[in-house]
Design a protein that fits this description.
Blueprint lengths: L2 H19 L2 H7 E9 L6 E4 H10 L13 E9 L2 E10 L2 E12 L2 E13 L2
Parallel strand pairs: 1-6
Antiparallel strand pairs: 1-2, 3-4, 4-5, 5-6
Helix pairs in contact: 1-2, 2-3
Length: 124
């Protein structure tokens, strides 16, 4: 497997694990410091910084502690260039089905999420 693809998959798996465990420190490590969080759920479009988003993750009950299975899966990864990529990821978390579009940048040889744009619906 291509090293770039392996590296991106590793970041995505850490992202999914961090959400499953509500581990804000691990989540912070996969996001770029200037990353953007955007939600379109229910037509309520919001844009947050990591400074706003990470404490929310840290304060919520960890899905893992509630017995939820980490069912996150990578739908697709597209390499857009030497230092840019995008992935679509799906998961069920805290009673909702999520589709996340993650944009990545590689800076100093390290892939990190530059933007997370997502929507969610009540779990099926």
């Amino acid at each position: 497997m291509d090293k770039t693809l392996e590296d991106l998959k590793a970041v995505i798996l850490s992202y999914l694990d961090a959400l499953h465990r509500s581990d804000a420190a691990l989540l912070a490590s996969v996001f770029h410091d200037k990353a953007l969080y955007a939600s379109t759920t229910g037509g309520d479009i919001r844009f947050w910084s990591m400074e706003h988003y990470l404490p929310i993750v840290a304060a919520r009950p960890a899905p893992a502690s509630r017995g939820e299975v980490n069912n996150g899966r990578i739908v697709s990864i597209t390499i857009a260039g030497a230092d840019a990529a995008v992935a679509i990821v799906e998961m069920t978390l805290l009673g909702r089905d999520f589709t996340d579009i993650l944009s990545f940048v590689r800076e100093d040889g390290r892939w990190r999420i530059a933007a997370k744009v997502f929507d969610s619906t009540p779990a099926a």
